[in-house]
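Intended use. Records such as the Phospholipid-transporting ATPase entry shown here are meant for training and evaluating sequence-to-structure methods. They are not intended to support clinical decisions.
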Amino acid sequence: MGMDFWEMSCLTVTAECLSSRITEIGVRCEAMTSVSHLRMAHLRQCAGEENWVDNRTVYIGHREPPPGTEAYIPQRYPDNRIVSSKYTFWNFVPKNLFEQFRRIANFYFLIIFLVQLIIDTPTSPITSGLPLFFVITVTAIKQGYEDWLRHKADNSINQCPVHVIQHGKVVRKQSRKLRVGDIVQVKEDETFPCDLIVLSTSREDGTCFVTTASLDGESSHKTYYAVQDIRAFNTGEELDTLQATIECEQPQPDLYKFVGRINIYQDRDGPIARPLGSENLLLRGATLKNTEHIYAVAIYTGMETKMALNYQSKSQKRSAVEKSMNAFLIVYLCILISKAMINTVLKYVWQADPNRDEPWYNDKTESERQRHVLIRAFTDFLAFMVLFNYIIPVSMYVTVEMQKFLGSYFITWDEEMFDEEIGEGALVNTSDLNEELGQVEYVFTDKTGTLTENNMEFIECCVDGHVYVPHAICNGQILPGASGIDMIDSSPGGGGKEREELFFRALCLCHTVQVKEEETVDGIKRGIHQGKATSFYISSSPDEVALVEGMKRLGFTYLRLKDSHMEILNREDEIERFELLEVLNFDSVRRRMSVVVRSSSGDYFLFCKGADSAIFPRVVSGKVEQIKARVEHNAVEGLRTLCVAYKKLSQPEYEEVCHLVNSAKLALQDRDRRLAEAYDIIEKDLILLGATAVEDRLQDKAADTIESLHKAGMKVWVLTGDKMETAAATCYASKLFRRSTQILELTTKRTEEQSLHDVLFDLSRTVLRQHGSMTRDTFSGLSNDFQDYGLIIDGATLSAVMKPAQDGCSGNYKEIFLEICRNCSAVLCCRMAPLQKAQIVKLIKTSKEHPITLAVGDGANDVSMILEAHVGIGIMGKEGRQAARNSDYAIPKFKHLKKMLLVHGHYYYIRIAELVQYFFYKNVCFIFPQFLYQFYCGFSQQPLYDTAYLTLYNISFTSLPILLYSLIEQHISTDVLKRDPFLYRDIAKNSLLRWRIFAYWTFLGVFDAMVFFFGAYFLFDNTSFTSNGQLMTTNTQMMFGNWTFGTLVFTVLVFTVTLKLALDTHYWTWINHFVIWGSLLFYIIFSLLWGGIIWPFLNYQRMYYVFMQMLSSGPAWLGIILLVMVSLLPDVVNKVLCRALWPTTTERIQTKRQCLTVEQSTIFMLSQTSSSLSF
């Protein structure tokens, strides 16, 4: 105890490094080997590494140590404020503007706007500045509102009241004002405001019970311990007299690791030093249960708490569609620059002829003549850039922002995603990723509370081949209608009766269950029988509770642990007392636990329970074959099975057990290894008694949801902090693993038998043997032609896999691991720390295929992977709201993920894909005639369209139809999408925004633009003078002029692009008709008013009477109709041919639905005709 803290730390760390031992959660830690290295490792966060740095000294209650003991060195630590928001009041404007102008389109239009302000351009600066200002403002308001909601959530946490001991009294203050060293009082059902060390509790034994559901996903009760020497300090006044300091490591993200010591100063020569470990540390976010109150001291606060260190930093997530938009934008920017350069060069080529240089109508000023030719060429180039800049659709970004913001409400309004139990529906925390829901390839899900309800149900037990099935016992509650016991086999007689009772006693004794004798726990009435309060059970393992309750139904009731004696009420209502001598705790490597007890008659028993693979090799007698057959049957059914065995110990054998266990516990180095060796010696030569089967109840429709995701082409990974056996059983129950699935293990147990290198290559050969270099991505997940593989990996092995390469020969194992995973239909990662979950997601996300990932979880331990994935979904479950608050979307239950992806995601993607392609198409149609027109106006930068048309084309005339389409289009009904998940594959891998389809839309736009321009040019082919001197067209009898020509082209353009959208619409409602036909009517009315009135605020009246005169020509009407039909013809022909020759699954269903509709209409008409004839 006198060892210096650093010596103790160095010994511990060096021992870990030398032996590569496994930590409590199964994470292999690569520790540094010297103090200097420890001090340098603060910011290193490699997989599996600990972040050791200099220690900190915490003065409990901020009281100085007695004079002459040690120097008082006050240290500054952060306050307890939690920050998840992105902006502040002061940096919102500059930071938001910086992020928005990182977008290529926004930056481009800013440059164009500045050019229009600086030089003389053919169009007004308003035509670029107004749409840009509108885009920036709408986006800033949307993002500001979303961040305000995050601020609001942060404030609700930071302003939460906490109780602090000051001068012997309990003082109430806000959570954000808590400081390191404050003594905090926490009452039952309250959440810990920061990381605390337990000083004392209201329980006499100094223990307290805690649920860490929001941290590691386990909602069961865990036991934590107060410091032995000060657990008697039970009041604020007593604690005010305490003089003590805590020396501990600096904050690091490992939830399950803590090293420190407390120095208690009493009336003696020196302080009393006591070690502190993870069993003394209460983490922020955990909740105190079934303990009236505790006193604890704050050691890590605010963003230094372990959970805050496990949060990933918030980064701007960008969808695949947005990345495609930016790529398309660069292509169009290149086209724009090419157009401007071609026109600039041709202008100077055309003006090389002296007769064309300075015509009387375009005479240059003296300053223009004296300007250098390169400056003039550059100015002309910029002018052409401004003239053609409308090919870059800035309004597309406005429409996309509005579509995402408004479209997100459809998730919120969805009544099928409303949960009656919690009274809430789905929430959208960010609407920027709606379409990404339709592109998911990998789903990473938590287990406890996400896939399961964390409710254990005792199903049956088998004793010497006899099966017992009590009715529905769930989490300590005997469900209604459970009266009696069903015996599948008859009860044994004679000596078998003794073994049956010994089995029941074994399960009543071999556990870590605590008993509470109150009517309520967690606000729920428990253990009520015939109106009287009886005992009920709490434990760190919910299946232990189910087993003890199962024994209660079978006649053996565990009563309590009192004074180291366990009491059982047997079938004869007699109380049996057993002295608890040793507990050999469960661990993931041994996969079993044991207790050593002494009966009232003085006999010593070792009772052992564990996984079948851990028990069967250690038994020497018993009905092994019958029990093994029943265990295999239950495993196939997806039940969690445990085997129970025992052996009787003599006095010398018991003393040997005590010696082995105590010597291992006192070891300072290799304690875990020595304990494992001792347990291995003790737990052998057992007699098999029987087996149990427990079911972890899945959430409603969880298995159906996972099956649908598989059919949709998604790979589902389960990432959990739970034990491997528990997680594997859940995977079978949820149909993640099927009966035919061959399980591959990449676990600590196997890597201890073989090197990691050999295990990885063995697994790689196994999965590639059947289908060579082809990966399972090539095949359907439901194919029966290939062996179905499932991989199980634990956190410790993952750390070794993720470790950077040390030499050239061993190499980096990541690629081999990824290759194995690609060929597995499902992967289970157990004993994962929160940061490891995020590392797994990042590993897949950054692999060479760059798949779209989705992470779903319900606890604070899932926040890191939720933030790391492309799309993060939080479940509003029992484990707090940290996951829901930090996610992109929040849903009440896992089953709602099916509709979220298969329906909403599908709709969002096809809508926004059409929106993007349509915007580029209609802008090509809009600006390419302007390019062609320059060849007929001497490259004079003369606009083809009037300024009003240039400004309103994207804002008014063509914006509403595509916005409405992108909000309500349903190419297939909701029921069909839910019923046939295979349709999700049609839109996978950004299939509707591929370069081939983008090129088709672009060429379609160029073709339509050429039809508009040259069709109108043909109508203006022949001209003649009238008697009053006007120039009229011979063909159409219209006034000939550039504004008439431009108006005709613009009219055909507006009608064509609007009707093109009408042809693409599958879901017609009255609002579609209103918007589409209303937009065309608005254009006509606007043109009549714009050209029919002399507007006093305009300094020109060039459009006066142009539109009305054009409409007065009958041939012009016919020409407009013909040009629109010719423009739409290629697209119609292409659709017909593709549907007939190469239909997609979606198009087949659409055709089938149309046929059914026609058939139903025909039957209805025939029935109506028949009834009228009979009448």
